[in-house]
Amino acid sequence: MNYETVIGLEVHVELLTKSKVFCGCSTEFGGEPNTHCCPICLGMPGVLPVTNKKAVEYAIKAGLALNCEIAAYSKFDRKNYFYPDLPKAYQISQYDLPIARNGYIEIEVDGKTRRIGITRVHLEEDAGKLIHEEGKNNSLVDLNRTGVPLIEIVSEPDIRSPEEAWLYLNKLKSILQYIEVSDCKMEEGSLRCDVNISIRREGVDKFGTKVEIKNLGSFKAVRRSLEYEEKRQREVIEEGGELIQETRRWDEVRGVTVSMRNKEEAHDYRYFPEPDLVPMVLDKDWIAEIKANLPELPDARKERYVKEFGLPAYDAGVLTSSKALSDFYEECISHYHDPKVVSNWVMVEMMGLLNEKGMEVEQIKFKPEQLAAMLRMMDQGTISGKIAKEVFRDMFETGEDPEVIVKRKGLVQISDEKELERIATKVIEQNQKSVQDYKNGKQKALGFLVGQMMKETRGKANPQMVNEILKKLLG
Amino acid sequence: MKIEKHTVDHVANLARLYLSEEEKAEMMEKLNSILDYMEKLNELDTTNIEPTAHVIPIKNVFREDEVKESLSLEETLKNAPDRSGNFFRVPRIIEE
User: Which of B62, B92, B94 lies nearest to residue A51, judging by beta carbons?
Assistant: First the structure.
């Protein structure tokens, strides 16, 4: 039996405003607990929240970048529930009139473009943070995060595989970083994701019973949990069982989803219009101005890299996947003439080292000019490609100029013909068997001799000259 | 619409109100009379009236994105029934 997977995502993103959404407290991450609080975000009686205009602007900006329609009229609503991280016992959110709706994101799946619908983008306030003390009967509450502006981005159930969910999240994150409305750091909680997944027999229109998964700490966890859940649901159906609509928690260590105890009553948030905040009539000129000031988005930048720099689509896609990486690359090519050469170094060596060290582009020690300087040293024959890799690694680790590294390590390429001939003579003397093999027509033997010369010179010999000299001496 | 006993139970539970049987009966009656009154409002013709979310005719009240001084930690925790260091302390709650 073939099944189709149906996935929808809800992503919460903290906006990069300086102050909270309804009061002037700082939104800075990592402050001492309960030091960014005031009567408004603490939910004291008699206070009056006032909306941060920047937060509304960022929500509109996100809506526009996600190809949404922006509401002419929008309002806030109260979502009521009791939980200790929510001092007012309601969250100010948006129910029926969100700031933006009906948008989409395009992702590339197996070389084809797929369009994933965005149902809505709405503005709301974040809740505080609960810390559960191990082995104690108490929880500790930090309300610094209470009232930090969030947008919730809800996708249509258009996603058909865990892979697509992963691509969607990466694209969404990239867009939001490009427009600079959020830093999207999952480890600091500024991007959080819940997923809904169901399966149905191929060809059936009706959706299957959906399961919500929570506690997803990384995009990898999202993908793994969906892969697990897809398989679990299939097994339940094939064994003749019935799926129940429920919330399951992802257990990262065991790699499984676990059913969360079903509460006696279903969530009943009793939304109603927030009486403390007046409605927003979003001015057309304001929206047009925000739209006009949208920066170049990842897809447009990718296209430009292909057209302007002649990069392969693959390179262009990788380089533009994050704004920080793309900005770094552009800075490099402003100092060096060949975009493809730079692309190779950035994608292979630089990204390889970033992965190896678990670092972000922002943490790179060397400057784009230094990479350009190193590439010019290669062009001038001062260092070989092989040595350049060593220089690059050193530069990555120390941030020193390539010239300094080459001098310090004595890595200047040997291009002195006399010197190379002397070494070649020595190598030939010591490897008579290979010399014989070569003379008997075995081309491979030459490669061995080249290798021996590189060994003698610790990789510093000019490879082209080595080849020529060996061939000449061997007649 | 008629409010029945199970609705009263549900609403009381959501509001964390613990009502006696007599109180529940009383609530049922009161809530029903409120709804009856709402029914009366339904007699009005509102065909050409825009839905209203707010009674005051004001829109777009915003503030600039400026950080203002927060309360001191002591001030913030002053009303807390229980605290631990810089935190509010509450009974253990884990959503499982």
Answer: B62
Q: Based on the fold, state whether residues A98 and A181 are members of the same structural domain.
A: yes
A441 and A396 share one domain: no
Q: Does A312 fall in a domain?
A: no
Pinpoint the alpha helices (H) of A210-322. Answer: 219-238, 284-292, 298-309, 313-319
* pLDDT at residue A264 in the model: 44
Of A392, A409, A426, which residue sits at a domain end? A409
Q: Are A248 and A259 in contact (CB under 8 A)?
A: yes
Question: A60 to chain B nearest CA, in Å?
Answer: 14
This prediction has a pTM of 0.85
Predicted local distance difference test score (pLDDT) of residue B1: 73
Contact A270/B at CB under 8 A: yes
| Interface predicted TM-score (ipTM) | 0.89
B86·A32 Cβ contact <8 A:
yes
Instruction: Assess whether A373 and A426 both reside in one domain.
Output: no
A254 and A368 share a domain?
no
Q: Which residues of A touch B59 (CB under 8 A)?
A: 278-281
How many Å apart are CA B89 and CA A138, to the nearest integer? 6
**Residue A429: which domain range?**
417-474
Q: Does the pLDDT value for residue B23 go beyond 50?
A: yes
d(CA B83, CA B89): 5
Task: Give the best residue of A139, A249, A260 to mutate against chain B (max B CB count within 10 A).
Answer: A139
* Chain A contact for B14 (CB, 8 A cutoff): yes
User: Do residues A246 and A143 share a domain?
Assistant: yes
Type of residue numbered A71: A
A430 and A400 in contact (C-beta within 8 Å)? Answer: no
Instruction: State whether A256 and A391 are in the same domain.
Output: no
Q: What is the mean pLDDT of residues A59-84?
A: 96
Class (C level, CATH) for B5-41: mainly alpha
Question: Are residue A355 and residue A436 in the same domain, yes or no?
Answer: no
In this structure, how many other beta carbons lie within 10 angstroms of the beta carbon of residue A47? 15
At B32-71, the pLDDT tens digits run 999 999 888 888 998 888 888 888 889 999 999 999 999 9
pLDDT cut 90: percent of chain B above it: 62
**CB pair distance less than 8 Å for B96 and A139:** no
Chain A hits for B68, Cβ within 8 Å:
19, 23-25, 38
Question: pLDDT over 70 for what percent of chain B?
Answer: 97
